[in-house]
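User: Study the fold:
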Amino acid sequence: MSRLFRSMIGGLFVLVVGGAFPDTALPGETFRDCPECPEMVVVPAGSFMMGSPSGEAGRYDNEGPQHQVTIPAAFAVGKYEVTFAQWDACVSDGGCSGYLPSDEGWGRDDRPVISVSWEDIRDYIRWLSAETGKPYRLLLEAEWEYAARAGTRTRYSWGDGVGSGNANCNGCGSQWDDRMTAPVGSFAPNTFGLHDMHGNVNEWVEDCWHGSYRGAPSDGAAWTSRGDCGRRVLRGGSWSLLPRVVRAAFRLRSYTDERIYDLGFRVARAP
């Protein structure tokens, strides 16, 4: 039988779970399935407007048409982007095909892992799921934007202006701007308790690339039909990209075997 311990830290419940994602978990509660596993945050069910309105500053056409999406059930999202330490644990255990991506001299440990392709990530998720017995996966595109917005409708989760020191991008006002990745958690979380949803690294998601949202599902499901599945969607922007590109609605795509020094990811799982 699993054991559940709760403690209050900084106003949030932290769960240490030996077993399943607890059915009674509340939004904002966190848990970790093993010492080397990503820390996860429970995100509530809900509805939101996906994409950007036609008048949003910096908007690209592939961000529309804006449409309502319902996320039907609570799910868990990585509090941070997956780190080098977590990736290296997979390699040390014989997983991830033994692939050790370069850290470009910026450091490993709590830096987000970079230069991992969508296909590489499948290996990590298989290892993590086998290690824990839990159904880990990539976020779906609708889940990613819902989690990034955290109940807001502004260009960024903190407002319409990029400000200074809210994220790591080329023009975000941080010490890492246009130079390198920042250690995960260097910036304040959004109201769901998630860090670095804007900037730091572009995050792979599950969905195939579509040039617009025409015909997109409204139930939060992965969109893997009638698209270009040789390329998958990236969200969030990165340390090397302009503020326009780290908006919540921005979408990018890349080939599934691409390894670039601003590509990373975070994981999700259901109960």
